[in-house]
Amino acid sequence: MSHTPFILASYLISTVVLLWAGLSPVINKRGLLRQLKNRRARMDKVQ
Amino acid sequence: MNPIYLFFHKTGSPPWFYRFSGRLIPWLWVGFAILTAVGLYQGLLVAPADYQQGESVRIMYIHVPAAWMSMMIYGLMAIMGFIALVWRIRIMEVMVISSAPVGAAFTIIALVTGSLWGRPTWGTYWVWDARLTSELVLLFLYFGVIALYNAYDEPRKAAKAAALMSIVGAINLPIIHFSVEWWNTLHQGSSIGTSGNSIHPSMLWPLLWMAIAFKFYYGANLLSRARVRLLKQDHRKRWVQDLLTEGKS
Fold first, then answer.
1. Which residues of A touch B150 (CB under 8 A)?
2. Which has more pLDDT, A28 or B8?
3. Among B53, B126, B166, B238, which residue has the fewest nearby CB atoms (within 10 Å)?
4. Does the distance separating the beta carbons of A36 and B235 come in below 8 Å?
5. Residues sharing a CB contact under 8 Å with residue B16, sequence separation 6 or more, in sequence order
């Protein structure tokens, strides 16, 4: 039995999981900042 | 004031923590990238194949450090949870809940890579062996902490519940560690310990580089998550408003 597919699958899955876990706070932060800035702009307009 | 005490005192302040962690995170990512490159180079290109496991031993350079991280992070969550409950330090509450998804990610990696290693070595992807089952329970504990936190509307109450669950769940850590000694398991015992190693240095070094690299990853990811959570919790406070004005967020 060739071990290569198992090794490649292990490294590929690990990379995907680490990328997902690493990028999700960056994406969340961008979304949150956009939301906060929009809210602030709306409040400034009202005042 | 003692500089170390002063540092911990400052860490309790969200604005200070936010600025300090923002400066630290890029360095942690750089450390992670360098150490991973060294670990992967040694593990995939320099280290020899194992005389019994063959080439599949290369999965160990991911599997073992990920399994160590899955346990270390839960242990840290229990310690931080204890500090959060006893001394009511909000940063610690944030750190507990920010650690959980990173710990869950490492547990998933440990379980999946272990399963992929098991197929060519043991002839099966999964057995209900004490080590594998207790590691799966750890994954459910991580999911439980995340679900419990999200079940509350009030972040401080949610953090207290999550901290308490982290402390109670820590009972699983010695079970995972000693499972290979307490029960007759298919999973082998530790090759690395305080009393000595049964692993050749050419295989030990890539394992250690990857283990240190994952710690840098955890640090960078934890701080990134904690910063987002602090921004979310404090979005009406002055320091967040100042950050938005300055555009240095």
1. none
2. A28
3. B238
4. yes
5. B10
Q: Which amino acid is at B40?
A: L
Closest by Cβ to A3, choosing from B55, B109, B244: B55
CA–CA distance, A21 with B66 (Å, rounded to integer): 14
Q: How confident is the model at residue B2 (pLDDT cuts 50, 70, 90)?
A: confident
- Flag whether pLDDT at A6 surpasses 90: yes
Evaluate whether B209 touches A9 at the Cβ level (below 8 Å): no
Which one-letter DSSP state was computed for residue B113? H
pLDDT exceeds 70 at position B249: no
Tell the burial category of B248 from Cβ atoms under 10 Å away from its Cβ (0-12, 13-18, 19+).
Answer: exposed
CB atoms inside a 10 Å sphere around CB B234: 17
Comparing CA positions, the residue from B102, B104, B101, B95 lying closest to residue B233 is B95
Taking the Cβ of residue A9 and every Cβ of chain B, the question of whether any pair is shorter than 8 Å is answered with yes
Min distance A29 CA to chain B CA atoms (Å): 6
Q: For an interface test with B, which of A1, A15, A16, A18 has the most B Cβ atoms less than 10 Å from its Cβ?
A: A18
Selecting from A3, A13, A29 the residue whose C-beta is nearest the C-beta of B56 gives A3
